[in-house]
Design goal:
Number of domains: 3
Structural class: alpha+beta
Distance between the termini: 32 Å
Number of strands: 6
Largest sheet: 6 strands, antiparallel
Radius of gyration: 27 Å
Shape: elongated
Amino acid sequence: MRQLVRFTSLVAAGLLLLVASTARSFACPFCSAPSQTMAEQVAQADGVCLVEWTGGTQPSDQDPGKSTYEILQIVKAPKDSLAKGDRVTLARYRASKKGDLFLLMGTRSGKGNSIEWGSPTEVSESSFNYVAQAPTPEVPAQKRLLYFVKFLEFPDQLVANDAYAEFANAPYKDIAAMASHLPHKKIRQWLVQPETAQPRLGLYGMMLGLCGDDADAKVLAEKISEKSADFRIGIDGMISGYLLLTGSNGLEHIDEWKFKDRKVAFSETYSAMMGLRFMWQYASGRIPNERLMQSMRILLERPELADLVIADLARWNDWSVQERLMKIYGEGEYNIPSIKRAIIRYMLTSTQAKPSAVDKPAHDVNNQYVERGKKYIELLRKRDPKTVKEAERFFFVN
């Protein structure tokens, strides 16, 4: 039953987002799955125009109807292929009224300059100007993001969503590089105003951590420390932003708010785990590695998280819990196949151990962990040969 609850919680906590993030590990770690931006679509198109709906033929039983548009402005097109005032007729009737504006994009068809148009996108003058003036994907990332950051909460949703997509697709290092140009007062306001779309909160929390101050840290602390049994989208990014601002001192509070209290919702604790992973991978040195390991070890007291925690400690080359893991192997709430396999893989990895950053002297300590890991693997092989064989079957060291 515990495993069923844990599985349901993982899904609710955004495991699918984690998978998406892994597949796009160089993009923003707290944004939703990437999508093709308008700038990317324009770059791939051969023809891009602003058009006005002028009329159409409504559909009949066997005919989808037609819609006709007049070209008002040309962003790009093959030479001598289009002119302002030309009419474009597309199959399929679209219920509109004269004066409605659309963005039309298409690609060359055949050897000539004729264009096969895609579906029109309804736009306003402001959203068309946003698209027409947007920097191309070839422009350096920091310069591009300086343009898009101005539109993150733009009233036109097409614009705001596209600007968010640009940040969702951007590597963390490029967002961090423009930290001094981020509008931290606006970002703080976006975090607290209820009308902000929830999928953006993780990005805004992380951004506030890059550009904020002590007052911003207090805002994040208030949001993070709230008691909530519901899954809160973006709390992982807020925790990471808070840790960027507060370092080890802030991690003491995260330990108390999310790790030591067993009554905290699984999704909240898991989001805090994501914060530890973020600090390890993206903000190296802001919090010492040993301090991050210390917080992660606390979660070994949570059987519902143990297999994930053990895998993280192995990736971090933290071999200090070898004896502890042997003691809990197969005991009580830890007597779960996923936990046992995680412990076995941890021991297997330790036999190829690299010394952690805090080990001194590294060579002697490394040998100690390797030999101990080998000894424990042999003990487990005798004690539980079936599970060891299962764990070894798909074992590899990153």
